Amino acid sequence: MKRSEYQRAQERAAAILKSGGIVIAEPEAEHIEVADFGLGDLEVQGLQLITYVNSDRYCAKELVLFPKQTCPEHLHPPIDHEPGKMETFRCRLGKVLLYVEGEAASDIQAALPPGSEAYYTVFHEVELHPGEQYTIAPGVKHWFQAGEEGAVVSEFSSTSRDEYDQFTDPRIARLPVIEEDGQDRT
After folding, report:
1. Keywords in UniProt for this one (predicted)?
2. What are 161's strand-pairing partners?
3. pLDDT tens digits for range 42-65
4. What values do phi and psi take at 9, rounded to 5?
5. Which of 75, 97, 133, 184 is most exposed by smallest CB count within 10 Å?
């Protein structure tokens, strides 16, 4: 991802947070993480996030999704005698379609990202609106997509170890590779 694209996504995410009345400090705005998951199509599969705290006991984040943007299917596996991350998603702005293991919806509302359909395997649909929340147990496959207006989700969880997340799409790289503008991607 080009540095200019990364910075535009940071600015856009900060503006969405502001529009939802979620105040962040300037240093937080400058450090919004932008994840394109190495797929090169941030608008379709990506996520913008701020980590407020991530200790050995708990974690709090804001997740910002652009309109119809999808965070790909993944799970949080057990690590070192810990059961894996348990997380509660609380919708703050917009609509979020969350998909978890369980009885599949007969007709899901989300649009599967073109070319990645085979990597989405769980379709129990949970629709979240502002003020609604859902807790995902450790080790449960899940993915989520914003509605037409985008969304903000507050995540409260046990310790986050994103580098250990297991994605169903083997092409995914969790940490972004940022190129300076004008450089070719290798």
Report:
1. Carbohydrate metabolism, Isomerase, Manganese, Metal-binding
2. none
3. 999 999 999 999 999 999 999 999
4. -65, -40
5. 184
